[in-house]
Amino acid sequence: MKKIAVFSSGGDSPGMNACIRAVVRTACYHQLEVMGILHGYDGLINDEFVDLDRKAVANIIQRGGTILKTARSKEFMTLEGRQKAKRNLEKHGIEGVVAIGGDGTFTGAVVFSEICSIPFVGCPGTIDNDLVGTDFTIGYDTAINTVIDAVDKIRDTAESHDRVFIVEVMGRDAGLIALRSGIAVGAEGIMIPETKNDLEKILERLAKSRKDKSSKIIIVAEGDENGGAYKVSEVIKEKFPAFDVRVSILGHIQRGGSPTCMERVNASRMGYEAVNALLAGKKSVMVGVINKQIEFTPFEKAIKHIEELNPELLKMMEILSS
Asked: Which one is catalytic: 12, 42, 128, 224?
């Protein structure tokens, strides 16, 4: 193997640049040529290839986002689009690809492998932490720390005005951001897609809550079955008209910011191991870190989010916030 490529795809996440840097510098160490592909699968189709070297990835480890840009590609979902992508990889002499992304990125790689034999190795880049095969995805630790920082500030104003704040966080299909950050900020309630009847339990807890507790924080994942923060606030206002209820939607602030130390180290390990995996002949696998050890999970398994949330964490949150 003499030449590889790297790209980021799907939603951006802090730590992607650290991963790109590790891929490029590990490849250079092994005397491989490296090309970056801009805008993910769209760039693969539109021939947006750029040469990368050690200097090109200097001073990016601390930056959020991704220097290679990212996108979601509708054209790649078509056979014609994938055929264009295959021709461009072959034209540039690419013999292996590191794909940084999440569920959609690896699903695309699986479908692409049906017409293209060039090996792909994935690095899990998504703030949702919803991939099987790694304890933490690239971006998750930074995202939950961003949520914690924001909610700590919200708690200050909630305490000052005796308010109930409904804070909506990202997590359309997975509630891991809401769960972990909710525990960390001492939230009075957490509503996530993985559990049912959240709202009824929240209402019961609000009715029984201590009278001397002036502020209350409820964390809602955007994918919760009850329809998000505004819908939840309407129900609470109707049930408890005396409460001063406010809504705060954190939105895309959770995707940005400088990656944490843990993020940078994990992303660097994954990028480093992805290049080593290509050199070892691996393909269609995702690099992950489980119990501090590097593991490789087939794309087909990684994209199936079948792991249940730990019910003990939910129970602990209820006990500690009462």
From this structure: 128
For residue 189, the 8-state DSSP code is: E
Q: What is the pTM of this model?
A: 0.93
Q: For residue 106, how far is the Cα from the chain centroid?
A: 13
Q: What is the mean pLDDT of each run of 10 residues along the chain (322 residues)?
A: 97 97 98 98 97 97 97 94 98 98 96 97 95 96 97 93 93 86 92 79 79 81 81 91 93 95 98 98 97 96 74 82 71
Report the distance separating Cα 13 and Cα 8, nearest Å: 10
CA distance 45 to 222: 32
- Domains of the chain are 3-139+259-302 (3.40.50.450), 141-255 (3.40.50.460)
User: Tokens 């001397």 map to which residue?
Assistant: 212
233 contacts 245 by C-beta, under 8 angstroms: yes
**128 noted as active-site residue:** yes
Distance CA 302, CA 310 (A): 19
- Partners of 166 in the beta sheet? 218, 247
